[in-house]
From TrEMBL:
It comes from Heterosigma akashiwo (Chromophytic alga). This is K Homology domain-containing protein. Residues 1-33 have a biased composition (Low complexity). Residues 1-39 are annotated as: Disordered. PROSITE patterns: KH_TYPE_1. The keyword Ion transport does not apply. The keyword RNA-binding applies. Gene3D superfamilies: K Homology domain, type 1.
């Protein structure tokens, strides 16, 4: 619906931050995302695909930019140098399975061309990683007792590496991040991938953790009952 306020402009579907009260400050809320800057385009890409899109030393991104604008010259109405900015990896905090790529600079036509090339690159990644057509990417966040989670780093992290070598899944163990609870020792673990792959990974993870040494389970139980943190 249109705003009844004079001079109001449409927001393009983005959530608007609430207006600040007199003498106070606006609180945009946890789900608020600022709109794209003027003269830019945004596209959502799978979080697991960002390494593939960037390449070593961002080489793949540079090739896409070169393909979209092979002869960069100044043009009236241009927006400066063409570039792509990838959103920081926030899946362990927000649960997002996708990341935002912002295309800035040059002209609208060239930005649209680069957006198309990015989407084509994502499709190639989906084919190469055997993604199931039509199945969305999800992010599953778990909070694991610290002592049991240390079992994942055994044998130089062989278990985590074996999971990440499986198709359709990426798992990140974050034992060095602060506990998610002030009273209990709970460390974050994140799985990102297609639904079937995430569910398989969850079952495999639980089976692996059941095989942890008994003293780790006992220490975990102590921590969950409010025992001392290390």
């Amino acid at each position: 619906s249109r705003s009844s306020m004079p001079g109001a402009r449409p927001t393009g579907g983005a959530r608007r931050a609430p207006a600040a009260a007199a003498g106070g400050s606006a609180d945009p809320g946890a789900g608020y995302k600022p709109p794209a800057p003027a003269g830019s385009l945004e596209v959502e890409v799978p979080g697991r695909a960002t390494g593939y899109l960037m390449g070593k030393g961002a080489e793949n991104l540079r090739k896409l930019i070169q393909a979209a604008n092979p002869s960069p010259t100044w043009k009236p109405g241009g927006g400066g140098k063409l570039m792509v900015r990838l959103e920081l990896d926030q899946d362990s905090k927000t649960g997002d399975a996708t990341r935002k790529a912002t295309i800035q600079g040059s002209t609208e036509e060239i930005r649209e061309k680069l957006k198309t090339l990015l989407c084509e690159k994502v499709k190639t990644w989906q084919e190469e990683c055997q993604a199931v057509a039509g199945q969305e990417e999800i992010c599953l966040r778990l909070a694991m007792p610290g002592p049991v989670m240390s079992h994942l780093s055994q044998d130089r992290g062989h278990f985590v590496k074996s999971i990440n070598n499986s198709p359709g899944i990426m798992m990140k163990s974050l034992p060095l991040e602060p506990s998610r609870s002030a009273a209990w020792d709970l460390r974050p673990l994140v799985m990102v991938g297609q639904v079937d792959a995430v569910l398989r990974c969850q079952r495999t993870l639980l089976e692996h953790l059941r095989g942890a040494p008994q003293h780790l389970h006992e220490r975990s139980a102590e921590r969950l009952l409010g025992g001392p943190l290390p």
